[in-house]
Amino acid sequence: MRIALINETSSADRNPDILRALEGRGHEILNCGMRRSGEAPELSYLHTGLMSALLLGLGRADFAVGGCGTGQGYLNSVLLYPGVSCGLLRSPLDAWLFARINGGNCASLALNEGYGWAGEVNLRLLFDQLFTEERASGYPAHRREPQRSSRELLARLSGVAHRAFADIVRELPDEIALPALGYPGFLDAALSGEAADPALAAALEARARR
């Protein structure tokens, strides 16, 4: 699995903790955001939400891990875009349930609020439960089929409720698009290889050249 890790400025100092918690699982990690709070250029959760959704939409990542101080801002930001199913995960039980019931492709972490003693241990235990072979298996067992149906319907609703991602990219405010697309290394990560959505890739390249 390819996992995109994208930190914003208020929680960028947690980037090493998250990386360590993801290590040893056999995944490819795309560390595309900030790595130290206050470094320039700065990204807010508005930027990292877009960056995460782009990597998912282009097929460059299978899963995105982000967050902010409380996890709420990033959650709302990334859910603005099509094809994203994100959960706010604070505990291993949250991750266990999200993986089995929702089977989403994005996790928002609270990386300042409540992040204290053994916070890095909580991250490791959370990822133990999130990245499981029992993904989308349902819980409890008798709810498996209704939950599967709900996931499929939710994906259809996302397509109906959103404009095409390429159209969104063309009309994004510069305050969002320029810091995100201009962040060092991001476009290389986003546009390397064959895109799952060629129209989105073309729109992204055109927007970056403005």
**Order of secondary-structure elements:** EHEHEHEHEHHHHHH
In one word, what is the shape? globular
Strand order of the largest sheet: 2-1-3-5-4
Question: DSSP helix count?
Answer: 10
Q: What would CATH call the architecture? A: 3-Layer(aba) Sandwich
- Please tell me the total number of domains: 1
Intertermini distance: 33 Å
- What's the CATH H-level superfamily name? Sugar-phosphate isomerase, RpiB/LacA/LacB
Helix content: 40-55%
Beta strand %: 5-15%
Walk me through this protein's architecture.
- The chain has 210 residues and is an alpha/beta fold.
- Helix content is 48%, strand content 11%.
- The longest helix is centred in the last third of the chain and has 18 residues, at 144-161.
